Amino acid sequence: MLSSKLSAVVSLLAATAVAQSYSPPNSTLGSDADGKYEISAEGIRGLFIPYGASISNLFINDAKGIERDIVLGFDNASHYSVDPFHPHLGGVPGRYANRIKNSSFVIDGVKYQVTPNENNNNDTLHGGPDGWDWRNFTVVSHTTDSITFSIVDPDGKEGFPGEVVSYITYTMTPNTWHIKMLAWATTKKTPIMLSSHTYWNLDGFQNPDTPTALNYTLHMPYSGQRIGTDGILIPNGTILPNLQYSVNDFWSGPKQIGANFSAPEIDGNCGTNCTGYDTCYLVNRAQNGPYDWRTIGPVATLASPWSGIQVDVFTDQDAFQVYSCGGQNGTLPIKSTQGLDSRPRVVEKYGCVVMEVEDWIDAINQPEWQRDKKNIFGPDDPPYVLEAAYVFSVNKTP
Ligand SMILES: *[C@@H]1O[C@H](CO)[C@@H](O)[C@H](O)[C@H]1NC(C)=O
Ligand SMILES: *[C@@H]1O[C@H](CO)[C@@H](O)[C@H](O)[C@H]1NC(C)=O
Ligand SMILES: *[C@@H]1O[C@H](CO)[C@@H](O)[C@H](O)[C@H]1NC(C)=O
Ligand SMILES: *[C@@H]1O[C@H](CO)[C@@H](O)[C@H](O)[C@H]1NC(C)=O
Ligand SMILES: *[C@@H]1O[C@H](CO)[C@@H](O)[C@H](O)[C@H]1NC(C)=O
Ligand SMILES: *[C@@H]1O[C@H](CO)[C@@H](O)[C@H](O)[C@H]1NC(C)=O
Ligand SMILES: *[C@@H]1O[C@H](CO)[C@@H](O)[C@H](O)[C@H]1NC(C)=O
Ligand SMILES: *[C@@H]1O[C@H](CO)[C@@H](O)[C@H](O)[C@H]1NC(C)=O
Ligand SMILES: *[C@@H]1O[C@H](CO)[C@@H](O)[C@H](O)[C@H]1NC(C)=O
Ligand SMILES: *[C@@H]1O[C@H](CO)[C@@H](O)[C@H](O)[C@H]1NC(C)=O
Fold this sequence. Notes:
The chain is mostly beta strands.
């Protein structure tokens, strides 16, 4: 026990040395009575918790100047560990986000079996039954506008080879939430894919006309293709075209999430018996030549016509998962900072949108996609890096 803790500390120190550009902020502010850590800048205030390095609240003023809490979460940090449903609210799925087909993969000719946790144990979702977003990260530093979490994921945990050490940093600047994720495979080659699994309701569930997100407009200008999946959402190797005006066309222009819900193809579009979206869209920017993800424009824009709140998602990642919350059924509670007294304080079907910046899902089982350098990392490789910026603005409402 002692020696494994010691080795974890040594790994953390080594990882810090590797991250030469990383200089931890010099301050510790601590958490509030609910176990949450606040960071803020002009026009934005977020609360975070060690469990899954999750965002629990994000406060943005709407077009009328009224503050809305626009992400899903729980009121108390301690509830996350006991919640029976665990919908991955706002956390960092790891060490390998999304699904791993048949809970196995091959690296350098060696087959690895990881712990299954979905679809009668046919696959591994979000890193397994005790993936990163089931664990408390360590708060490494906390200032008024930034927080850094760390995790040491031991060799063999959930069946994955080798130790992984990761730092997750969230920083606020005016109207912007910045995410930087770094991860090092310190001992062996292993799959790494992280994401931010944030559920959005840009009205804070306070739109009196609807508790759903179906009227939000979504635009993904670089996403003319998506990854084909089977009935349980496992990639089957195909890359599919999002033909213009088809239900998966969000590239040719902004479209309401629910715009095509009367089209027959929307049924089963997110797996067997699922209506809507739970889809990994590719982000194709290569034709622009060398580009800076910070300035080339958002990979996605989501906007609510009621609150006027708009989020532009900038990222260095090459895929973008959208889930339209068809699996919600009025069981999950909303927070005391959200909702209206006039209706149930729960998340209804289609009451949210999950947007995940990530790489091509399950690419470890599709070697012909040639994504190894973005999916498999060893001690001799540069670290895994994910960066994103969520930029908020308001549009005039009707
Ligand atoms: C941290 O801040 C304190 C007080 O401002 C200062 O004395 C100390 O030198 C700082 N430490 C580092 C490592 O910057
Ligand atoms: C949150 O949970 C903790 C631990 O269970 C408890 O001490 C605290 O009072 C709770 N806070 C609120 C506001 O209920
Ligand atoms: C995470 O930390 C919270 C607050 O200290 C605690 O209540 C909870 O049991 C911890 N959960 C896990 C999975 O360690
Ligand atoms: C799934 O994994 C098991 C255990 O390694 C193996 O026996 C089986 O052949 C695999 N199935 C497929 C379809 O790859
Ligand atoms: C999962 O695997 C079992 C066999 O272990 C099989 O019966 C079942 O049809 C598979 N698929 C799903 C979606 O559960
Ligand atoms: C949603 O948008 C549709 C079409 O744009 C409109 O007819 C409808 O009234 C809107 N519903 C709500 C609840 O805002
Ligand atoms: C893969 O799944 C898509 C549906 O998502 C389907 O259109 C395609 O035919 C499937 N391809 C194979 C090879 O199974
Ligand atoms: C989807 O909705 C858009 C916008 O209303 C429309 O132009 C398009 O024809 C619809 N596609 C289908 C397949 O219904
Ligand atoms: C899909 O729905 C049909 C009709 O309700 C049902 O018979 C079937 O079992 C469902 N399939 C799955 C995989 O849930
Ligand atoms: C609603 O969803 C929850 C969580 O997924 C599930 O446990 C429950 O059985 C569902 N309830 C109904 C009525 O479908």
